[in-house]
Specification:
The protein has a single domain, classed as Nitrilase/N-carbamoyl-D-aminoacid amidohydrolase (4-Layer Sandwich), CATH 3.60.110.10. Helices cover about 25% and strands about 25% of the residues. The longest helix is centred in the last third of the chain and has 26 residues.
Length: about 300
C-alpha cells in the first residue's frame, strides 16, 4: 500500500493568448507545489478558450502534438518541482485526427502517456464531435494492459492515478473500469458551464447534478475523486456564450468533500490516504459483490423493446 499523497487541482480561466495561459498555469502549479501538492491537475483544454462553442475549421490550428512544446515545458516544470502533472490539451495526433487529451507527466519529468477522452458530447455550444476523435477502445489480443488505448492508469512516483475528461464523468462504466485498473484517485479535468438564459431556472440543479454524479463514483468505487473545472464567461458571436461555473472539488471514498471551490480562481489541496480506500472497501465491499457473470447486457446500446 502506498503512503498518503497530496493532490492539487487548479480552477482558472483561459483566454486567446496561449503563452499567457501557459505562464499563468505554471505560476499556479508553483503555488500548489509550495502548498504541498505532489500531483497537480489542470482543467480541460487548459491553454485555450473553450473553442467548441461553434464549428470553425480554423480552430483546429489550436491543436498541437503530444509530445510538443506545451508538454515539454510542463515536463521541465514537473522535474524542477518534483511533482506529477496532468496536462489536458487539444492534441493533433495526425492530419484529420484530433483528440481531447490529457498528458500525464511523472515527477522526474518523464512523459508517461496521455488519456484521450472517450465520451464526446454534441450539444448547443458544445460542438465536440466536430473537433474530437474519441479515444479508442482496448486492443484485443496479447497487448500489454498498460499500453492499451482506452481507459488506463499510470503508476506515478506518489500514487497510481486515473484520468477521465469532462463528459466521461457522467458514465459509471468509465469510473468503474479505471478503478478496477488500480487507480487511487480519479482526476476529471472539466469545462462545464451554464447557458446564461438557463441559469436562473436550472443553474443550481446543474451544479448539484455534476457534483453528485462524481461523488457517487467515489462512493461506488471506494476511491478519491478530483474535478477541476474552468471559470469565466466566454463569448461566442451570435450566442449568449457560456459561463463556466467552477465549483471544483475533491472528494474522499465516502463522497465527503475534502476541498471545494466557488466560482473564482482557486487552488484546492487535499491529502489522500490509501488506508481510507482499504477501510471503505472492507466495509462497503461493492467490488467484491459485483455479479460479473450477469452484466453481459450492458454491452448493448439498448435492451428494452421499442
Amino acid at each position: 500500500m502506498t503512503a498518503p499523497f497530496t493532490i492539487g487541482i487548479i480552477q482558472d480561466h483561459a483566454d486567446a493568448d496561449a503563452a499567457r495561459n501557459l505562464a499563468r498555469a505554471a505560476q499556479l502549479i508553483r503555488q500548489a507545489a509550495a502548498r504541498g501538492a505532489q500531483i497537480i491537475c489542470l482543467k480541460e483544454l487548459f491553454n485555450a478558450p473553450y473553442f467548441c462553442k461553434s464549428q470553425d475549421s480554423q480552430r483546429f490550428n489550436l491543436a498541437e502534438p503530444i509530445p510538443g512544446a506545451t508538454t515539454e515545458a510542463m515536463q521541465r516544470l514537473a522535474r524542477e518541482l518534483a511533482v506529477v502533472l496532468v496536462v489536458p490539451l487539444f492534441e493533433r495526433q495526425a492530419a484529420g485526427v484530433y483528440r481531447n487529451s490529457a498528458a500525464v507527466i511523472d515527477a522526474d519529468g518523464t512523459l508517461l502517456g496521455a488519456y484521450r477522452k472517450m465520451h464526446i458530447p454534441d450539444d448547443p455550444l458544445f460542438n465536440e464531435k466536430y473537433y474530437f476523435t474519441p479515444g479508442d477502445g482496448p486492443i484485443t489480443g496479447k497487448a500489454d494492459r498498460d499500453q492499451e488505448p482506452g481507459f488506463k492508469v499510470w503508476k506515478t512516483r506518489y500514487a497510481t492515478i486515473g484520468v477521465l475528461i469532462c463528459w466521461d464523468q457522467w458514465y459509471p462504466e468509465a469510473a468503474r473500469i479505471t478503478s478496477l485498473l488500480g487507480a487511487d484517485v480519479l482526476f476529471y479535468p472539466t469545462a462545464i458551464g451554464w447557458h446564461p438564459s438557463e441559469k436562473a431556472e436550472w443553474g443550481q440543479a446543474q451544479v448539484d447534478a455534476w457534483r453528485t454524479a462524481q461523488r457517487a463514483h467515489a462512493i461506488a468505487n471506494g476511491i478519491y475523486v478530483a474535478a477541476p473545472n474552468r471559470i469565466g464567461h466566454e463569448e461566442e458571436p451570435g450566442t449568449d456564450g457560456i459561463t463556466f461555473f467552477g465549483h471544483s472539488f475533491i472528494a474522499d471514498p465516502f463522497g465527503r468533500y475534502l476541498a471545494q471551490a466557488g466560482e473564482g480562481e482557486e487552488i484546492l489541496i487535499a491529502t489522500c490516504d490509501p488506508q481510507v480506500i482499504e477501510t471503505v472497501r472492507r466495509n462497503w465491499p461493492f467490488l467484491r459483490d459485483r455479479r460479473i457473470d450477469a452484466y453481459g447486457p450492458i454491452l448493448n446500446r439498448f435492451i428494452g423493446r421499442s
